[in-house]
Amino acid sequence: MRAVDIIIKKRDKKELSGEEISYMINAFTDGSVPDYQMSSFAMAVLLNGMTHQEITELTLAMAASGDQLDPSEFGGNVVDKHSTGGVGDKTTLVVAPIVAACGLPVGKMSGRGLGFSGGTIDKLESIPGLKTDLSTEEFFSHLREHGIVLTGQSADLAPADGKLYALRDVTGTVQSIPLIASSVMSKKIASGANAIALDVKVGRGAFMKTLEDARELAEVMVAIGNLSGRRVIAVISQMDQPLGVAVGNALELKEAIEMLHGRGPKDFHAHCIDLSAYMLILGHKTKNLQEGREMAQAALDDGRAWQKFKEMIGAQHGDLGFVEHPEKLPQSRYVFSINAEKSGYIKTVDAQEVGESSVMIGAGRAKKDDQIDPAVGIMVRVKIGDKVEVGQRMFDVHVEKESDFEIVFEKLKKAVEITNEPVEAPPYFWDVLGMN
Ligand code: URA
Questions:
Q1: Percentage of residues in the chain with pLDDT exceeding 90?
Q2: SS3 for 83?
Q3: How many A from CA of 22 to the centre of ligand 1?
Q4: What is the pTM of this model?
Q5: Is 168 an annotated catalytic residue?
Q6: In the predicted model, what is the mean pLDDT of residues 62-83?
Q7: CA within 13 Å, CB half, 32
Q8: Beta carbon of 418 within 6 Å of any ligand 1 atom
Q9: How far is the CA of 179 from the centre of ligand 1 (A)?
């Protein structure tokens, strides 16, 4: 087989066989298919799509590109969550400790930023010393000892996804149902979780812009999960505007720490509680959403989730002084505000514009090997439906250089639309799949 023939076949909108897909993935993993051919393949998939059979083959080939963990010693109850990517989505940092504090082992492999969306590992790495490249043995020993582990994608688990993810980030090939579904589910299958809560984002700041596409992505992922013997629930959640207030790595970590103390934005709180509740349902701690919410809230209220978070950070060699005193976390040199130019009601806070702005000031990557700046980011002070007065603060932009603020000033101003008529706040969630 030759990679170029497989690329041409997909370019010409033909269905690939399982062997062709496996060949492509294996050869990419071992380096014999170079980045430029894989980028071209990814673009052909993005433009021409894949059948459900092809997506399943792609997922399984990627899951099989490295080790596959077997967490059977935990009694079939290891739960995991994964978001398809949004702006200001620091949910994992709160949900994983809540659920672990409720007695369910949470073993999670998280990603880095992708395009305009942030990544949990980049956020966590604002903590000095924190180890996010745990080996398979370390992953299991942390899970056994602490009931919680949050690690980056190690070279041994779904390495094909690790390589492809980094390539997609910088080649305009993120927004594709087959590529997102296989990326998410290959990692989940390889890391062995028995049950997975998927958070499928939809809206301006998500890779899926329409409810129809989000539902299709959710359905494909639930089907692949079930096919490989996993219990899966997918929520479809609103991502027209950023989640919470903070966008940017250390800023988001601080907001997550606040939430672990029971303080923080309403939308982010609701998101954390519901996602935790779905994970508790998946892990058979409860059958009922309301009871799951109460269990999650109790773990926040009595400090168990915060203790669990600190236990995890300490176990992964993070400097606890920085989470106990978040004011020590990286801080940018300047903070500039952008204020409302008229009074009225907030109709739009375009999460994609905010996410792209945060990348432009250094919170994300433009090229694969770019270093991110943990200190920079944007605090979004308005939500859709809010009433604002002229001069009211809408954004605080945390930057290292004044010129960075100038680069994003117009873009951020345009991200917000203010109207004279009242606007209804959108729901947090649109739908839930896989509950039965
Ligand atoms: N999250 C992933 O793990 N992969 C994607 O492609 C998008 C979001």
A1: 85
A2: strand
A3: 20
A4: 0.92
A5: yes
A6: 89
A7: 10
A8: no
A9: 8
